[in-house]
Give the backbone structure.
Amino acid sequence: MKTVEYDRYGDIADLVLREVPMPRPAEDEVLVQILAAAVNPVDWKLLRGGFKILTGRHMPRRIGCDFAGRVVATGRAVTMYRPDEMVFGNINPLKGERGSMAEFLAVKPEELAPVPGVLSAVQAAALPGSGASALESLRMGRAEAGQHLLVLGASGGVGSYTVQIAKARGLHVTAVCSEKNAPVVRGLGADAVCPYDRQDPLTLPGRFSLIIDTVGKHLLGRCAHLLTARGHFVQVMPNARSFLDLWRTSLFGGRKAHALMLRLTPAHLRELAQLAADGRVRPLVGTTFPLERVRDAYALSADGHAVGKIVVRIGEA
């Protein structure tokens, strides 16, 4: 089968499409033919060595964590999935011995959920990581109906889900994106849109109970004046300063900073599947690429201006 690997920490040019043996599922695993896999920033951050302390030096490493596909076979201990069933899921990207940018993948049942019938494989692949990040960001920020929410980076993967889920829960959403992407974000349900290339979002009037930064360009110190006295600021792509803000604000009352470190669970997959089945969330897929152009897919993600999710088509998706 074909898979995408890298032999050293480096850049997108170091990604290699290789032929490797097809995995065989263990007794407690499911073999999935991958039809589509989504690109996530964590993939290329790992490639660049940003988490060496966690990932170690073992090479080669495979890339990709979100996927959707068709069950091919199951181990003897697996009873909840059957061949030909459509599934979607997420694998831990830190380990690197598996990657979703591959034609086949052996996974545990808890890493999967059935694909809602309303979604294609491409749409389902775009759901897990970014959708779960949106869910957790809203939970960390104590989001409640009637609150005013500011979403920075609303047209991206996490941002597009955050807008939709927040609206489904009764929040008033102000979304920040480029002027070009404003119609897309309005179509997701945003109550107000601030085009950052026409207005600095830090000059917005009013106060927000919650600010979610999906792109990692702001810190609590820059946004504090936009928050209510006990408002919450959630950093989806945290850096060292984000954790310092988290620690500092945990010691005192008032505004709180949060840094998202996502651990995706089966409950996330089930909740996202239900939201999609109910029509409250629709994956925003921006650009798709064939597996042979996986480098182009990651280059677009690293550029930071993609609309919605970038998805790689692998099988007959």
Remarks:
- The chain is about 25% helix and 25% strand.
